[in-house]
Amino acid sequence: MKSETGFYPGYEEVRMARGVASLAVLEAVANGESHGLFRGFRIDATRIRCGHTDAYVMRVELVVRLEGLLFDRAIAEILPLHSD
User: Fold this and answer.
1) Nearest-CA neighbor of 58 among 83, 28, 18, 82?
2) In this predicted structure, what is the pLDDT of residue 83?
3) Domain residues of the chain, as ranges?
């Protein structure tokens, strides 16, 4: 995907953005939301509160933009670890 400024993200940039996105999802599970920036990528993760869903599954909306353009969007379902 080419952005408005002509930047083509390479394999390493996409891989690093994927790592930032993974950490953002985990942080959103713990804190409700997370935001990150990396070389033109903006990563936003927000925990979704649904009253009718299973209490053991947390849903997080992940939105990745590259210089303002939508790059990827997903809903992640996370099973949180419980320490008993």
Assistant:
1) 28
2) 53
3) 11-78
